[in-house]
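Re: that chain you flagged

S.,

Sorry for the slow reply, it's been a week of failed gels. I finally had a moment to sit down with the sequence you sent. For the record, here it is as I used it:
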Amino acid sequence: MVLAMHYSQIACLIWHGKKDPEITDFLNQLSKTQWLVGSMTSEVGTFGDMRRSLCAVQCEGEQAVLEKDATTGSYCEQADAILVTARSGARAAENDQVLVLVQRTQRTLSQTTSWNTLGMRGTCSPGFKLRAVIPRGHIFSTPFSEIAAMTMVPYSHILWSALWTGIATGAYRKAAAFIRQQARGAPGSMPPGATRLATLNADLQAMRHNWTMAAIDFDSEAAGTRDAADPLGMRWALRMNNLKVALSESAPRLVHGALQTIGVLAYKNDSPFSLGREYRDVLSGALMISNERIKMASASILLVSKEA
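Prediction finished late last night. Pasting the structure tokens below so you have them in one place:
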């Protein structure tokens, strides 16, 4: 998950930082040093809505000051730089946002919550209060609304979906190894869970097809729309919403199916067929940008869009 989120931040830098010389300079350094880039888009008071900010950048000459109270900051303590969302100014509306590049030497982080979670513990995503003094050139000139629609959301949802498919694949492989072990122990007979394994295989194939086709189509469609006023349109926004919801909900079902196929050995933590970690980690998918919030956004699109 850290790698997937890092890649989505790198994509934002590559596609939307090229108009800004100081961000381009940072990207050139990053390619040599392999710095880790984190993300801070949540905020106390916005209730998980990435497209709203309460904090604002305050420009003072060639510098800007930013203070943000984030509900989560994924691996921000470890990151060499963070991409942060904020209002474009003190008088800007909550949805008038910019993306800001904050390097390690420009920030102060104060952790406000813990990260003792059921799964995905390695993402290290507690809450933080951030204070940063940055060069004015570290504010992206491209509005965050475009960055989110064109790059951050598609990259995140496709890469997350690939990750959840990977967790499901690991669970499936343990179930397959268990069934094959049973088959070797009773030659000529069909293990009881073999038909369930066939169902899991079909479900896994559908998951892989869903996200890989989304990735292929995104690369094809985005190539010609990078400079368009409405980069990909509501149809694509709906597709990304559906992909995130579908994969984050189907992955836990597949892991649960693998557990049912294996039985108690999957439930035991000291078993080679244990699915404890897979089960804990995969449950986070529906909570990362809540599926209920995404479904509400999709409902709004369907009310006005004739493209779907």
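What I noticed first: The longest strand covers residues 63-70.

Talk soon,
D.
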